[in-house]
Design a protein that fits this description.
By secondary structure, this protein is mainly α. It is built from five helices and no strands. The chain has one domain.
Length: about 140
């Protein structure tokens, strides 16, 4: 008779998958907002014309930092508490983004914010409480 799978192992795998998906998504979005000229961003993201270019770049760099924070501290086990902190900060970014979309009447834009924010909240909870990663 085989032993039942360890639920914490399954949760750990699910958290790593979520971390990787979020990191890839936020890295791509962050890079896009960080280096693409504002005029090229505007047709895809109308809000960029309503805020200073520095704000768009700051959001992009924040998303890049969040992507790195989701993976590097956990993978290296150096300050792994930074991983759930990065996830929590990305939840805040998604809440603020949802607020911008709602204020502009862009209701379709709320779906990605809700999905990414929910996934980031799962990672924050999982890495803080349910399946934290031990330091070296």
């Amino acid at each position: 008779m085989s032993a039942a799978p360890n639920p914490s192992r399954g949760l750990n795998v699910a958290l790593w998958i979520a971390q990787l998906l979020l990191a890839v998504g936020f890295a791509m979005a962050g890079l896009f907002k960080s280096v693409t000229p504002i005029a090229e961003l505007a047709p895809k993201m109308g809000w960029v014309l309503d805020v200073p270019a520095a704000v768009v770049r700051f959001i992009g760099l924040s998303e890049l930092a969040g992507a790195a924070g989701l993976i590097l501290p956990a993978a290296t086990r150096i300050k792994p508490l930074l991983t759930p902190l990065a996830a929590a900060c990305l939840v805040v970014v998604m809440i603020l983004g949802a607020g911008v979309h709602a204020s502009r009447g862009e209701w379709v834009g709320l779906a990605p914010n809700a999905l990414l924010g929910g996934l980031a909240a799962f990672v924050a909870w999982g890495r803080w409480k349910a399946s934290p990663i031990a330091s070296r």
